Amino acid sequence: SSSSFPASDVPKPRYVRVNALKMDVESALLELRKQYEVLQDDTVHGLLILPPGADLHNHPLVKNGSVFMQGKASSMVAVALGPKPGWEVIDACAAPGNKTVHLAALMKGKGKIIACELNKERVQRLEDNVKLAGATNVKVMHDDFLNLNPEDPSYSKVRAILLDPSCSGSGTVVDRLDHLLPSYGAGNSDPSNMNRLRKLAAFQKKALEHALCFPAVERIVYSTCSIHQIENEDVVSSVLPFASTHGFQLATTFPQWPQRGLPTFDGSQHLLRTDLVKDKEGFFIALFVRKNTHQLETV
Ligand code: SAM
Q1: Which atom of ligand 1 is nearest to 225's Cα?
Q2: Which of 16, 114, 121, 226 could serve as 167's disulfide partner, Cβ 3.0–4.6 Å?
Q3: Would you call 222 helix, strand, or coil by DSSP?
Q4: 165: Cβ below 6 Å to ligand 1?
Q5: DSSP code for 145
Q6: What is the number of H-type helices and E-type strands within the chain?
């Protein structure tokens, strides 16, 4: 029962990420502190922590795109990719665009983000969010990421790819904590769910291998909001030989973060997990870096 996991009873704080394209952190703090007690997160710059009950949905700063309601782990992904202003970047599975607009802010609106999304309805939400954020350097594409030809000259300058593919979402469903906690390893005892996880993992692996094929890419982040090893460590370890032939290796993202990947293979210490109980969401982040270009950043 959930009583064996007392941390799960502690309410989840609310996070908002200040959109640097529209507002600075000091102004956001000043505004939000009129209503709430607000702390600053020490992992992600511009991420603010509000009390658990805070409902920001209709707050003017949310409505006008000055801040985005985005969880901590989700806000770590674009930071892990670390794009520089002026870079060309692909957000491979982009809708609804939380990470796209975060990338745009990290790039100070300079350079180019190709935001690819397969699902038509979700493309609309992506476009709305890009507009709301004032992210003028984003080109939204309604397409299958797997259809983007890495040899196409229009992608020859792409230096970074953020791959946040469809996943089981098992790290975000806190209500089902009790069912999920024992199932890191096995996936699940339910065969139909196991089948679903296998299908998701097959797509995730294919998409990650596709990302590794873009010729000028130096950095790739693979992330999920799943707690399952089959979608996380197993996907990463299965592409390692392929990654290696393309000159990529794993690099440590957020080195100070205590929780690393499940120790299922040599190199899993580079990977990052957030904890379903302690952090209230189970996320996974892996960073690949092309050897000769960024060797110094990998240690
Ligand atoms: N990165 C998004 C964010 O932070 O707001 C969330 C992405 S969500 C986990 C995964 C998305 O990938 C879904 O919108 C899904 O429709 C899309 N997707 C799934 N398969 C795809 C494919 N082959 N090509 C492009 N997008 C795909």
Answers
A1: 9
A2: 226
A3: strand
A4: yes
A5: G
A6: 9, 12
